[in-house]
Design a protein that fits this description.
Helix content: 40-55%
GO biological process, one term: proteolysis
Low-confidence stretches: 1-16, 797-823
Protein name: Penicillin-binding protein
Pathway: Cell wall biogenesis; peptidoglycan biosynthesis
CATH architecture of the largest domain: 3-Layer(aba) Sandwich
Number of domains: 5
Mean pLDDT: 87
Shape: elongated
InterPro entries: Beta-lactam/transpept-like, Glyco_trans_51, Glycosyltr_51/Transpeptidase, Lysozyme-like_dom_sf, PBP_transglycosylase, PCN-bd_Tpept
CATH topology of the largest domain: Beta-lactamase
Distance between the termini: 160 Å
Subcellular location: Cell membrane
CATH superfamily of the largest domain: DD-peptidase/beta-lactamase superfamily
Strand content: 5-15%
Strand order of the largest sheet: 4-3-5-17-18
């Protein structure tokens, strides 16, 4: 076969077919290339593995350095073991209610232990924020992987985050606000390492507890305990499933899921949380369906230092706790009496300056804003509520409208139009001073504004919010008009106290703390009028006088200590020219008899008597003191009158019974302080007369208007021009005092119809006591009696039973101090 021979022939060992020869060479080269390619790929792969390992090692080294504090910020071990917890101090009433908190800024955080939190909150939190919380050690690798793949690589923004609860806690506890790209890039790995350390030092339960105590739920609700109170008005252990889901839903973004402003949006977020709980087996499908259909219902309680009950009490207590030892140089010239009061309080009251007097075991001082103290006050929340209601009802519903009617259209209102009392020049001076006391004036002066600019600003109408008893309203008026508008509002002070142990049960320092913060119970002092007379009569009883001793009911003409003639006025006209006994005189608050009595006694001794009763104010040792020109606080007067209710034993007011630390350990306890000020014989004599003031005299409206049948004593008081109205009342187990008047002495009613103590002040007491007796949970009974000994002799010659004596009292008569008492 020639063709085949041709194909297989060779010529000198070489193929004679060039095509075949080329194919053979190409195949040979191909085999050589195939042998080299795997070696090159192996090099690339090895390089990639080396790079990958280097990155992994670098990451581990990087995290190791962060973990050990070489790079970035890592808290000290001791700080990690004992994080600095800042908790608001909580005030509790005597009946176990929370009445307020001390905190600064957003520091309204109150500690809640794990067992104080509803299990629904725990279930909702883990199901929504960290479903593998029980399994990881601070970092959820599966979660990070999901974020890397779905969020980073696939761009799915709804894939969720990878932060565990422990990482979120680390951020809350230790991460500062990041600024700049580098600091933001460093923040996350630092949080990871802190989370790992937290998992090392704390159990899962403790981490959950710390997380719930740290989170800010808005509206000054920091921590689960505050949030439960603010949004639902309950303790965290009492939260229902849907309520727990609402709060946990806020964790994602409390500003966006704000249940107050965005109810429907927050309800939908709540339902997402409920769905997560069902997915993780915490609730059933049936529960999910029924709970998701519920509306989002709140019991919103905004927490603010000015809100809540007893704000004046809380502020006075705060001042007392934080008081420094008085140094005269730190007081202005006009604060001489305040320096005296504070000095006495520093020496005699363990609560005054408590922080300075009671250092921590390590020598540092307690901070009422961050140490989470538990302060157990003497306030009864029910009685406080009744006191505030009584003030609002009487002032807002009756007295204030009458005052506005009287002053409407009057030039110079709210000041008096009596130019013998207040000249036009002095009135303008008072208005200018009021203007200078405003924040607007001080800020303009600080900014360098001229007098003309300031005057123009105060006469330019502006939009503003003003107080009314029906709530604040928006209006337009000049700043000057707003100053005068606020001065139209009558001020008040009311305090009720247990006369046996000094526990303050109710304390109202003004009509509204948000607008009128000056406290007229402890800080303010006003002339006491005829409420001073029981001190005079007690002094007389100690000197041997009896309720039956008689005096001529005619105007005395006396010479005072300066040689001037003093002829005091009298409001009533009953029994003029007759001989009247001291019982009748005090029952009807007769000025003439009081003047005759002090003329036979010693004004300096009356001063000592009043000081023994607990009145610390400087008192002038003059005869006119018997009519009450002295300035005294409501708190001092209640303290003094406690002796009339407690067998002659004065008791000092108690604000607090105990203070405990954040863990409930008692730091300080407080006990009553008693002082005997009335002898037994004098006590029953003065008591019988004060009971008669209510039964037959100027305080009879307690019976006729308010229907109170309880055995009680009391005394009304009114000062010149109706500037001050007082009523002091007491029963065997409660003593109370109330004052009503204008912001200044020249702001008052023109007539006694509204301006006397029986009209201005007594109704607050009457309304309060009626509510107290109407609440069976308070255990105050109108059947309580004063215990008069069977053999007591109220008069030297013969016994006059304090119920049997016939008196011809003019029940509408009221008392006044004399005109120009300081002239």
């Amino acid at each position: 076969m020639p063709q085949q021979g041709y194909n297989h022939q060779t010529n000198g060992g070489q193929s004679k077919n060039p095509t075949r020869q080329n194919s053979s060479k190409q195949a040979s080269r191909s085999r050589g290339q195939k042998g080299k390619k795997p070696r090159r790929h192996r090099g690339i792969i090895a390089t990639l593995w080396i790079l990958f390992a280097s990155v992994i090692i670098g990451i581990f080294v990087f995290l190791f350095l962060i973990y050990n504090g070489v790079i970035g910020y890592m808290p000290q071990v001791e700080e990690l073991k004992n994080p600095t917890d800042r908790f608001a101090s909580v005030l509790y009433s005597s009946d176990g209610k929370e009445i307020g908190r001390y905190f600064v800024g957003t520091g309204n955080r109150v500690y809640a232990d794990f067992d104080e939190v509803s299990p629904h909150v725990i279930d909702a939190l883990i199901s929504t924020e960290d479903v593998r919380f029980e399994d990881h050690s601070g970092i959820d690798m599966r979660g990070l992987g999901r974020v890397l793949v779905k969020t980073v690589l696939m761009g799915n923004k709804n894939a969720g985050g990878g932060s565990t609860l422990t990482q979120q806690l680390a951020k809350q506890l230790y991460s500062p606000n990041s600024s700049g790209l580098l600091s933001r890039a460093m923040q996350k790995p630092i949080e990871w390492m802190i989370a790992v350390k937290l998992e090392r030092y704390y159990s899962k339960e403790e981490i959950i507890k710390m997380y719930l105590n740290q989170f800010d739920f808005l509206y000054n609700a920091v921590g689960i305990k505050s949030a439960a109170h603010v949004y639902f008005g309950k303790a965290p252990k009492d939260l229902k499933i849907e309520e727990a889901a609402t709060l946990v839903g806020m964790v994602k973004n409390p500003a966006y899921y704000n249940p107050v402003r965005q109810n429907e949006r927050t309800r939908q977020r709540r339902n997402v949380v409920l769905a997560q709980m069902e997915k993780n087996g915490k609730i059933t499908k049936a529960e999910l369906d029924s709970l998701s259909a519920l509306p989002l219902t709140l019991n919103f309680n905004r927490v603010d230092a000015k809100d809540g009950i007893a704000p004046y009490f809380r502020e006075e207590l705060r001042r007392m706790l934080r008081a420094q030892k008085p140094v005269r140089e730190n007081y202005r010239g006009w604060e001489a009496q305040k320096f005296i009061d504070d000095s006495i309080a520093w020496e005699t009251n363990p609560l005054y300056g408590w922080i300075e007097k009671n250092p921590k075991p390590d020598g540092s001082k307690y901070d009422i804003y961050s140490d989470g103290l538990k302060i157990y006050t003497t306030i009864d929340s029910r009685m406080q509520k009744y006191a505030e209601e009584a003030v609002a009802k009487h002032l807002g519903g009756y007295l204030q409208p009458a005052f506005f009617r009287e002053k409407r259209g009057t030039k110079g209102a709210p000041y008096t139009t009596d130019r013998a009392e207040l000249s036009e020049i002095r009135r303008n001076h008072l208005v200018r001073n009021a203007m200078k006391n405003t924040d607007r004036y001080r800020m303009m002066v600080k900014a360098g504004a001229s007098k003309d600019e300031i005057n123009r600003a105060f006469h330019t109408p502006r939009e503003m919010k003003v107080f009314t008893y029906n709530g604040s309203v928006d209006t337009v008026m000049t700043p000057l008009d707003s100053v005068l508008y606020n001065k139209h509002f009558l001020r008040t002070g009311f305090m009720a106290m247990d006369p046996l142990n000094g526990h303050i049960k109710a304390y109202v320092g003004g009509p509204n703390f948000s607008y009128f913060q000056y406290d007229m119970v402890s800080t303010g002092r006003r002339q006491v009028g005829s409420t001073v007379k029981p001190f005079l009569y007690t002094y007389a009883m100690e000197e041997g006088y009896t309720p039956c001793d008689e005096f001529s009911n005619t105007q005395p003409v006396l010479t005072d200590e300066t040689g001037k003639v003093w002829a005091p006025r009298n409001a009533g006209s009953a029994r003029v020219g007759e001989m009247v006994d001291l019982r009748w005189a005090l029952t009807n608050s007769n000025n003439w008899i009081s003047a005759r009595l002090i003329s036979q006694l010693s004004p300096p001794s009356l001063v000592r008597t009043m000081h023994n009763f607990g009145i610390t104010a400087e008192l002038p040792p003059v005869m006119s003191l018997c009519l009450g020109p002295a300035d005294v606080s409501v708190k001092e007067m209640v303290t003094a009158y406690s002796a009339f209710a407690n067998n002659g034993m004065r008791v000092d007011p108690m604000f607090v019974t105990a203070i405990a630390d954040n863990n409930g350990n008692i730091i300080s306890e407080f006990s009553p302080r008693h002082t005997e000020v009335i002898s037994e014989k004098a006590y029953y004599r003065i008591l019988s007369m004060l009971l008669n003031v209510v039964n037959e005299g100027t305080a009879h409206r307690v019976r006729s208007r308010f229907g109170l049948t309880a055995e009680m004593g009391g005394k009304t008081g009114t000062t010149n021009y109706n500037a001050d109205g007082w009523f002091m009342g007491f029963t065997p187990n409660l003593v109370a005092g109330t004052w009503v008047g204008g912001d200044e002495r020249f702001i008052h009613f023109n007539t006694m119809a509204y301006g006397q103590g029986a009209s201005m002040a007594l109704p607050i007491y009457g309304r309060f006591m009626k509510k107290v007796y109407g609440d069976p949970s308070l255990n105050y009974s109108q059947s309580a009696k004063f215990d008069f000994p069977a053999d007591v002799n109220l008069c030297e010659k013969e016994f006059y039973g304090y119920y049997d004596e016939e008196v011809n009292a003019d029940n509408n008569a009221e008392d006044t101090t004399m005109d120009g008492v300081f002239d």
